[in-house]
């Protein structure tokens, strides 16, 4: 690995000048957090955002931009390493492990250079907790969820699959773009945790499918922001009150197709022993959301660790088969794994 003094400063590319069909997303400004009045207003704004769009911005979140840029620089330095060095960090994908460096297998999105090195999308996942705690009985939610319920499902000192991810989408030539039948880098999908944080990425490519309209919209880069989306586990825990957001990565607009797209993301997931049953909440009960798909179908409710491994193995198997998942394919009893177009 390069010495810290060898890591170059990261420079963000200019934003697109094209007039795209941008999503109108709420901005959760945390500068107003900390008082009862401010917290109540933010909570109401957040609930509306996650139920109508599933995506929102967060600003004034307390991480200086220079520290964010340092992470982009580290990611860029990793991808500039020789192939033989990166191959040391390939995980056991067939068994659902994702920590480390991996490449995609979809032939329409893969180009081979340096032997087996696929250039179009490179993913480096960095686990933030390396030593799991001793085995624990499955964690079952309290009879009535307290205000700090979700905070305690994501404790920093316990083992889960939360991680930081560097994701590089390599630029395509005009001939390669012409071979893509759908104009996508990555098809429509949902994330499997609770929320995903995307640090501002100026190359326009992220598209979201709005809950209310079903329309695909571009997510506009907002200065000093995180772009946040809701995921599978949060949907399970709220009985579908909060939906897992479908999103995809499209080819950038014409004025940005000459550059690579380096993403910096944080995937937040509950502790591995959390049972993904609907929490006991008066809000959910008043709205009529009291059972998720596992409970409604009479299926065993998986833990977060079980669901994570099963979905990751399914994702990897589909990548190996060079195809999107079949609609309605059940990967956990009661849950169907899908990609969306």
TrEMBL record:
Pfam families: 2OG-FeII_Oxy (PF03171), DIOX_N (PF14226). Coiled coil: none annotated. Residues 186-267 form the Isopenicillin N synthase-like Fe(2+) 2OG dioxygenase domain. Residues 121-146 are annotated as: Disordered. Residues 28-98 form the Non-haem dioxygenase N-terminal domain. Gene3D superfamilies: B-lactam Antibiotic, Isopenicillin N Synthase, Chain. InterPro entries: DIOX_N (IPR026992), IPNS-like_FE2OG_OXY (IPR044861), IPNS-like_sf (IPR027443), Iron_ascorbate_oxido_reductase (IPR050231). Belongs to the iron/ascorbate-dependent oxidoreductase family. This is Uncharacterized protein. It comes from Apiospora hydei.
């Amino acid at each position: 690995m390069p010495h810290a003094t060898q890591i170059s400063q990261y420079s963000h590319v200019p934003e697109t000048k094209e007039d795209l069909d941008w999503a109108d997303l709420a901005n959760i400004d945390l500068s107003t957090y900390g008082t009862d009045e401010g917290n109540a207003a933010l909570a109401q704004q957040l609930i509306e955002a996650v139920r109508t769009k599933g995506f929102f911005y967060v600003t004034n979140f307390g991480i200086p931009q220079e520290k964010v840029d340092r992470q982009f620089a580290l990611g860029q330095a990793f991808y500039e390493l020789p192939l033989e060095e990166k191959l040391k960090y390939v995980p056991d994908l067939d068994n659902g492990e994702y920590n480390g460096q991996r490449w995609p297998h979809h032939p329409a999105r893969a180009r081979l250079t340096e032997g087996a090195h696929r250039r179009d999308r490179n993913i480096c996942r960095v686990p933030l907790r390396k030593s799991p705690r001793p085995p624990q009985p499955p964690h079952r939610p309290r009879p009535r969820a307290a205000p700090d319920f979700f905070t305690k499902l994501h404790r920093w000192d316990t083992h889960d699959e939360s991680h930081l991810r560097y994701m590089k989408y390599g630029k395509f030539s005009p001939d390669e773009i012409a071979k893509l039948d759908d104009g996508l880098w990555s098809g429509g999908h949902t994330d499997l945790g609770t929320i995903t944080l995307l640090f501002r990425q100026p190359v326009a490519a992220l598209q979201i499918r709005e809950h209310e309209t079903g329309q695909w919209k571009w997510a506009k880069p907002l200065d000093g922001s995180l772009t946040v989306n809701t995921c599978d586990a949060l949907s399970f825990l709220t009985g579908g009150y909060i939906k897992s957001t479908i999103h995809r990565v499209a080819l950038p607009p014409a004025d940005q197709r000459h550059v690579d797209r380096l993403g910096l993301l944080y995937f937040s997931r509950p502790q591995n022993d959390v049972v993904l049953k609907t929490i006991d909440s008066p809000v959910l009960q008043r709205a009529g959301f009291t059972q998720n798909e596992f409970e409604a179908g009479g299926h065993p409710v998986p833990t977060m660790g079980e669901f994570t491994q099963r979905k990751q193995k399914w994702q990897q198997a589909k990548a190996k088969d060079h195809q999107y998942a079949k609609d309605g394919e059940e990967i956990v009893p009661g849950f169907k794994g899908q990609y969306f177009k």
